[in-house]
């Protein structure tokens, strides 16, 4: 059985309403539920919540695999807003205090071969300095605050983990709220299609 792990209720909202007539609707941060086919969980934002709650979910439900899905800030300008990206590598990015930082990395398999692929960095302490953004653009395509923790916990428990992210960036013409709502809808559409095609 697959565990689908979200970070926030907002990212999960449309899927929770649309999957099996709202079977998981009402699920909130820190909770998980399951039916005969699927486990669905919401960890909350940040590496600490992601670590503790994904550990609890995996140990309690014993899934055969994990899919972490949500939004991520895009560094790669070739990705469109609300485009779904299959992550093939995730690394821990909060090590900028070192002169020559070494970032722990985990490679990822993806069953979603039709998607563009990208490298994801997980970091909670994001500098707003433009020079830092240029630095990260050289080594990562996307950034979030939870994926490395979830992938690490899954690997530590011997469970395969896939990560799929919807790229989010600023737009001169479209309000960020509009981009986010479209992205949340994209998450639901992608998951429902993947389930129908038995890719999850």
Poorly predicted tracts of residues: none
Count of helices? 5
What portion of residues belong to β-strands?
25-35%
Strand numbers in spatial order across the main sheet:
4-8-7-5-9
Topology pattern, helix = H, strand = E: EHEEHEEEEHEHEH
Mean pLDDT, nearest integer? 92
Give the C-alpha Rg.
16 Å
Overall description:
Helix 1 packs across helix 5. The protein has one domain: Rossmann fold, CATH 3.40.50. It is about 35% helix and about 25% strand. By secondary structure, the protein is α/β, with parallel strands linked by helices. The N and C termini lie close together (about 10 Å). It has helices spanning about 10-20, 45-60, 130-140, 145-155, 175-195, and strands at about 1-5, 30-35, 40, 65-75, 85-90, 105, 115-120, 140-145, 160-170.
Task: Describe the protein's topology.
Layout: E1 2-6, H1 9-18, E2 32-34, E3 38-42, H2 47-61, E4 65-74, E5 84-92, E6 105-107, E7 116-122, H3 130-139, E8 142-144, H4 147-156, E9 161-168, H5 176-196
Parallel strand pairs: 1-3, 1-4, 4-9, 5-7, 7-8
Antiparallel strand pairs: 2-3, 4-8, 5-6, 5-9
Helix pairs in contact: 1-5, 2-4
Please summarize what this structure is.
With 200 residues, the chain is an alpha/beta fold. It has one domain: Nucleoside phosphorylase domain (Rossmann fold, 3-Layer(aba) Sandwich), CATH 3.40.50.1580.
């Amino acid at each position: 059985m697959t565990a689908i792990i979200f970070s926030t209720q907002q990212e999960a909202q449309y899927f929770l309403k649309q999957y099996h007539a709202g079977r998981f609707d009402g699920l909130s941060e820190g909770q998980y539920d399951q039916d005969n086919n699927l486990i669905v969980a919401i960890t909350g934002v940040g590496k600490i919540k992601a670590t503790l709650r994904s550990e609890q979910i995996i140990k309690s439900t014993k899934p055969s695999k994990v899919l972490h899905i949500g939004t991520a800030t895009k560094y790669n300008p070739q990705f469109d807003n609300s485009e779904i990206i299959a992550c093939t590598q995730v690394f821990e990015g909060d090590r900028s205090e070192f002169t020559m930082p070494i970032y722990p990395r985990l490679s990822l398999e993806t069953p979603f071969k039709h998607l563009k692929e990208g490298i994801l960095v997980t970091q909670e302490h994001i500098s707003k300095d433009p020079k830092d953004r240029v630095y990260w653009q050289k080594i990562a395509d996307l950034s979030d605050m939870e994926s490395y923790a979830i992938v690490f916990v899954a690997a530590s428990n011997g469970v395969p983990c896939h990560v799929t992210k919807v790229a989010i960036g600023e737009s001169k013409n479209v309000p960020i709220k509009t981009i986010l709502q479209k992205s949340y809808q994209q998450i639901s559409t992608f998951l429902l299609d993947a389930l129908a095609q038995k890719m999850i």
